[in-house]
Amino acid sequence: MENKKIDSSYVCPICGCKDPRFFGVKSGRTYCRRCISFRGEEANNDQAYPKRAPIYIDYELSEDQKRLSNQLVENYKQGINSLVHAVCGSGKTEIVLEVIKYVINCGEKVGFAIPRKDVVIELSKRFKAIFKQNSVISLYGGHTSNKKGDLIILTTHQLFRYYHYFDLLIMDEIDAFPFKGNEILKAFFYRAIKNKFILMSATPSVEMVDAFKKDGFQLLELYSRFHTYPLPVPRCYIKSTIVLFFLLVELTSKYVKAHKPVMIFVPTIEYSENIYSLLSIFVKGGMPVHSKRKDREAIIDGFMNGKYKYLVTTAVLERGVTVKNAQVIVFRADHNIYNQYTLVQISGRVGRKKDAPTGEVIYLAKEETNDMAESIKEIKRANKNLQTLL
Predict the structure, then answer these.
(1) Is the pLDDT at 351 greater than 80, yes or no?
(2) What does the pLDDT read at residue 313?
(3) Main-chain phi, psi angles of 235, to 5 degrees
(4) Is there a contact between 55 and 132 (Cβ–Cβ < 8 Å)?
(5) Cα–Cα distance between 62 and 71 in angstroms, integer?
(6) Helix (H) / strand (E) containing 340
(7) Closest Cα partner for 236 from 342, 346, 367?
(8) Which of 248, 261, 258 minimizes the C-alpha distance to 362?
């Protein structure tokens, strides 16, 4: 039988919980119910050694990217944590390459954390091509056997395996589900840091930026995409549901005929399946995508390689996917699942390639919400700042 006596001063060493309501005692040892599901082998925190980390890219960084890249290296040298606010498609990955190289060259440990598994998989492919001479590993649910490398790409859930481990821990998409508002994952993040960190986001809230500044850290901003074209400003259509559907058919058909891949965002899994079933009657060549589809990685690869002409997708493709010449339609953009930050992220799927820097973003809704209006205002503000810089 479990002993109920709990030390009132106990603090969970994994998630930092201090609330005794989450604690129990078994076989004389205190455990925490809040993070009990996060159990598994942790990485050995042994000494690393200096290594060469040449960067293999076949393109030049923009002047703005170089400026932020150099500043991140200098901040690390000076012991300063950084928050990078960079618009969608500005090339956040490219911005951190030099600081990653510097840390590896110093014989120190680098981690790159992201909330979502799909993005970890995609980003790991990119980093393996960039750091060809180094060991780049990825960790996510069901893929945790190798925990050591020169560069570790991992979901935020897997950070519990690393205790005061990373000399530099980079965290992208800090405003994304499931990290945002999750105190356990936040505790894992800070527990994993040995030295300094870099936070990155295309859509940080005002509260997040203010809190970061108060802590004495440095905010770095990048409003220009690497090709210097502005962000696409969404167009809104406010109609009844039936009219919205036939607008969706018309727009999807137009893009498919023009050989432009289409990402149709919908609020829920049910919407994804139902809208696809109806849309596929009128427009062939698509697929539904959501978190419950076991074959979604194959579908996404097929879309990126041109096998599928359009996807009817939930928020699983909101981040981390770059498709040349992609067009975006948000069906029922007025749904409460879409806040202004989500809509900005979705809009950022368009125009991400240098040889296809423009495209369309369409909001289809029964009414215009404040979040829809604010997302458009934010995109216009970023474009205005870009024009000022140019």
Answers:
(1) yes
(2) 96
(3) -105, 140
(4) no
(5) 14
(6) helix 340-347
(7) 367
(8) 248
Task: Pull the structure tokens for residue 11.
Answer: 């603090």
Q: pLDDT digit string (tens) for 240-251?
A: 999 999 999 999
Q: For 161, which DSSP code?
A: G
Amino acid occupying residue 209: V
Residue found by looking up tokens 């993070």 in the block = 35
Are 20 and 10 within 8 A, CB to CB?
A: yes
Q: Residue 124: which H helix or E strand, with range? A: helix 117-130
- Smallest CA-to-CA distance from 112 within 71, 61, 57, 172 is with 172
- 3-state helix, strand and coil shares in percent for the chain, rounded to the nearest 5: 35, 20, 45
Nearest to 42 by CA among 14, 67, 17: 14
Query: 38: Cβ–Cβ under 8 A, 6 or more apart, which residues?
Result: 14, 15, 157, 160, 184, 188
Provide the token pair at 161.
């395996």
Tokens representing 194?
């040995």
Closest CA relative to residue 95, chosen from 119, 71, 125: 71
pLDDT-above-70 percentage for the chain = 97
List strand residue ranges (DSSP E) for 157-257, in order: 166-172, 193-201, 218-222, 235-238
Only one residue has tokens 């696809």, namely 276
Of 20, 46, 23, 18, nearest in space to 33 by CA: 23
Confirm if 161 and 44 have CB atoms less than 8 A apart: no
- DSSP letter (8 states) at residue 215: T
Q: What is the widest separation between alpha-carbon atoms in the chain? A: 70
**Beta-strand (E) ranges in the chain?**
23-26, 29-32, 82-86, 110-114, 136-139, 151-155, 166-172, 193-201, 218-222, 235-238, 262-265, 286-289, 310-313, 327-331, 361-365
How far apart, in whole angstroms, are the C-alpha atoms of residue 115 and residue 310?
25
pLDDT band at residue 220 under the 50/70/90 scheme? very high
2 has pLDDT over 50? no
Higher pLDDT, residue 45 or 216: 45
Q: Give the span between the Cα atoms of 380 and 375, in whole angstroms.
A: 9
Q: Is 298 helix (H, G, I), strand (E, B) or coil?
A: helix
